[in-house]
Amino acid sequence: MRFVTGMILLISFSASAKTVLVKAPEANPIAYQSKIDTQSDFISVIDWYFRIHPSETNKTRLVELLEDAQMKFVSANPKSSTKSFQDIIDLALVDDWKAEHREVFLYASLRLAQLTEDLKERDKFIRIALSHSFKIEPEKDIFPPPLLRRFDEIKGELQTSDLEPMKFRSKWDAVLINGVMCTLESCPSLVISDIPMRVTWLSNQWQTATELRSSKELSREEYQEPSPNKPWIRGSCLKSSVDGFADQDFDAEAYFKDDCKVANKNLELKPMLTTSEGVPLASPSPGHSKTSWLRSPWLWAGVAGAAAVVIWQTNKQGKNDSSTEPSTTYGFRF
Fold first, then answer.
1. Whole-model pTM?
2. Which alpha helices (DSSP H) does 53-97 contain, by range?
3. Which pLDDT band holds residue 232 (cuts at 50, 70, 90)?
């Protein structure tokens, strides 16, 4: 699969390589951004967030689940992989993932659609796959042709919505929808459905907020983004403190104005994720795991180009489709 090699690049990032510049509420946003742009030693809070998400712990967990699911899928009893594929999908909502990880979620969703004999369940898993796909398409040679045709049918039946950028940028610096950035210039086009999506609101001065919302909710006129009410920095240039939750230390500096030189080391910038109602949103710790992607034999097997192919009879809907292509080779290949 394409996503494996892309994952390796993520470990080159270091959350502590630069100093995180944290904007105080009263700081001039233009002056703050100017300091970020002109002094290479600093990164913004948002850039820091991108560097540590998804967390090493969650990435390692994803690799472990994918390995377990795939080993069971290519076994004599492919349906034994169902729980592991479901665990992969559940993991999608506990972090903000990159495109290469969303491809894993699309893959797992379509495997579940392939394994079920319930047509309603099949269509639900296809809608879940579409919620992670954006512009990612399933690989044609590892799924049954009838399933791919149904994927295209549902994709064509569901409406799409081009979200209005200003709707999501009035109070926040950025918003991620299932890990995809919504900028001032443009927002991703969403397939409208009732499938929950992870929506993360980012700011260089306000603590991060995360909600689980469906694209149907996000596209409604009456939808209101959560109000930022917890600044990272409290106090003044002479005496300041940071308000938040963290499980790792890194260098950071509070920014009030250019002539204020107060360095705050080991600022804790990782907030507790909450819903729009302020209820804590449970998620695995984003701390760095000692287990690296590079230590995964499954990953190296993929990088080396090893292929796992299972010959499997088409599922129930495939058998009933008279126009099915003659190929019956479905499996997972790195």
1. 0.71
2. 56-73, 82-91
3. confident
Q: Is 291 exposed, middle or buried (0-12, 13-18, 19+ CB in 10 A)?
A: middle
Q: What is the mean pLDDT of residues 251-272?
A: 64
Q: Round to whole Å and give the CA distance between 91 and 292.
A: 18
State the Cα–Cα distance between residues 253 and 314, nearest whole angstrom. 58
Mean pLDDT of the chain: 74
3-state secondary structure of 11: helix
Using pLDDT thresholds of 50, 70 and 90, give the confidence band for residue 319.
very low
Query: DSSP readout, 86-149?
Result: HHHHHHGGGS---HHHHHHHHHHHHHHHHH---HHHHHHHHHHHHHHHTT----TTSS-HHHHH
Which H or E run includes 264? strand 263-265
Task: List Cα–Cα distances, 273 to 126, 167, 231, in angstroms.
Answer: 28, 22, 14
Under 8 Å CB-to-CB from 249, ≥6 apart: which residues? 16, 266, 268
CA distance 82 to 197: 21
Amino acid at site 30: I
What CA–CA distances, in Å, run from 90 to 26, 62, 95? 39, 10, 10
Cα angle, residue 186 at apex, residues 185 and 190 outer, rounded to 5°: 170
pLDDT of 239 reads: 72
- For residue 189, what pLDDT is reported? 79
Comparing CA positions, the residue from 214, 198, 7 lying closest to residue 99 is 7
CA–CA distance, 104 with 2 (Å, rounded to integer): 10
Q: Who has greater pLDDT, 181 or 284?
A: 181
